[in-house]
Specification:
Layout: H1 4-16, E1 20-24, E2 29-32, H2 41-49, H3 54-61, E3 72-74, E4 85-92, E5 95-103, H4 111-151, H5 154-166, E6 175-183, H6 192-207, E7 214-218, E8 223-229, H7 236-253, E9 261-265, H8 275-291, E10 298-300, H9 307-310, H10 325-333, H11 338-348, H12 353-360, H13 364-378, H14 385-400, H15 414-422
Parallel strand pairs: 9-10
Antiparallel strand pairs: 1-2, 1-5, 3-4, 4-5, 6-8, 6-9, 7-8
Helix pairs in contact: 1-4, 4-5, 6-7, 11-13, 11-14
């Protein structure tokens, strides 16, 4: 059944013989009429992608449509392949809700016809404002339940999970995963523009998912997306793809955070009332990728290895006093980080000299020399399992504590981790 906005643009387009469309205030397409007369590439792209491209959007906004109180005539723009248009702002009192567009090629619309456009914009404002109120009520209900789900006591969390299922706000038979989007290096206090962009990115990503397959909540410095896991999302590749879509939705609005938008992804959960644990997984994963160099800006909790344990420790415990004394001496004395990086690679490869030397492109004799120097500085015996374990954990703690940044080579890829796990320890170990 056509929506009220759809019936409105259909009637207006047919009455005036012009292609009509309605966008929301962020120029995302809400309804459009059949084509009447000439159309241009911008309209076709808007219908296809539900939003005009960035250049076209910037140009129409430069014409003052956001502050206009009545229909505005826009000239054609050959560089953008845009025909002349009429844009009527859709306002409820002083609140801008969207824009009503008509292509105005050929004979220009008369003043009487512009009056009909203004009336249609007023009618659209009533519809969009009513829909906004309904949506705000629904969103408020969902936010309340999400807060209870993630931060309530166990009984409250269980009640919230049951209510989400019973009220069909989240499909009852779905497993789920939690995503946390966190822009890095945010100033304090966090600006309203950043918080709004985070929430709009969460909403935009949800629109690509089936109904009742997602929920979201915006926090002070990050956003939370809970997603029902089906089909391709059952794989790490599928979850990573959705995470990249979420990042793109945010950085499109906030390009200054390109390369600084971190995303953590939890394990998949079968019970919705375990969401608090999985939220902490995703949040910790985002925290790890902010601190640890070389792992990129997307992390799955399941792939963090020992960092899954270390990230659970209180921040105040991740400090110099948690490191073996010999390791701290090594870090402080190792001005270019060569010995510390060598030690980490050696321990990551379970003491396999051959694998370590290949990975570092280092002759074995040189590697043995470095290992002896490490033993001398740290006072540790690399043949002793306890010493090796203490040093290995100490290096990871040093990373999380910001005491040693390491290098991109200091993180095992899944393939290298599997290779190291299948090799027997070196005779040196």
């Amino acid at each position: 059944m056509p929506s009220e906005l759809q019936r409105l643009v259909d009637a207006l387009g047919e009455s005036l013989g012009r292609s009509a469309a309605i966008d929301d205030r962020r120029l995302r397409l809400q309804a459009y009429s059949p084509h009447y007369g000439p159309v241009d590439e911008t309209r076709l792209a808007s219908v296809l992608h539900r939003q005009a491209d960035e250049r076209s959007t910037a140009w129409v906004l430069s014409q003052g449509i956001a502050t206009a109180a009545s229909p505005v005539r826009l000239p054609g723009n050959d560089d953008l392949s845009m025909l002349p248009r009429v844009c009527a702002p859709i306002r409820h009192q002083d609140l801008l809700l969207g824009y009503l567009w008509l292509i105005d090629a050929g004979a220009a619309l008369t003043d009487e016809e512009l009056g009909l456009v203004a009336e249609a914009a007023n009618a659209a404002a009533v519809v969009m404002y009513r829909e906004r109120l309904v949506q705000e009520l629904e969103n408020g209900r969902q936010r309340e339940l999400m807060r209870d789900l993630l931060f309530g006591e166990p009984g409250i969390t269980l009640d919230a999970a049951n209510t989400l299922r019973e009220e069909s706000l989240f499909a009852a038979d779905l497993s789920a995963a939690v995503f946390v989007l966190r822009p890095a290096g945010l100033p304090e206090p966090v600006s309203s523009d950043v918080r709004e962009a985070v929430e709009l990115a969460l909403i935009a990503t949800r629109r690509r998912l089936p109904l009742r397959h997602s929920l979201h909540l915006d926090r002070l410095d990050h956003g939370v997306l809970l997603v029902g896991v089906t089909g391709k999302l059952l794989t790490l590749e599928g979850l990573s793809g959705l995470a990249e879509d979420l990042r793109t939705d945010f950085t499109r609005a906030m390009p200054q955070f390109a390369g600084r938008t971190l995303i953590g992804v939890s394990d998949v959960m079968s019970r919705l009332d375990s969401a608090p644990t999985h939220y902490q997984q995703a949040l910790s994963a985002a925290r790890v990728v902010e601190i640890i160099t070389g792992v990129g800006d997307l992390a799955h909790w399941s792939n963090l290895g020992v960092y899954r344990t270390l990230a659970r420790l209180p921040a105040e415990e991740l400090c110099a006093r948690a490191l073996p004394p010999g390791l701290l001496t090594l870090i402080e004395a190792d001005s270019n980080g060569t010995l510390t990086a060598t030690l980490e690679r050696f321990l990551d490869f379970a003491g396999d000299v051959k694998a370590t030397s290949e990975d570092l492109a280092l002759h074995r004799a040189s590697l043995y020399y470095r290992l002896r120097r490490i033993e001398q500085v740290t006072g540790a015996d690399l043949r002793d399992g306890n010493d090796r374990l203490a040093l290995h954990l100490g290096i990871k703690i040093a990373r999380l504590a910001g005491l040693w940044a390491g290098s991109s080579q200091s993180v095992l890829t899944p393939a290298k981790r599997a290779r190291a796990a299948t090799r027997p320890p070196s005779p040196h170990a």
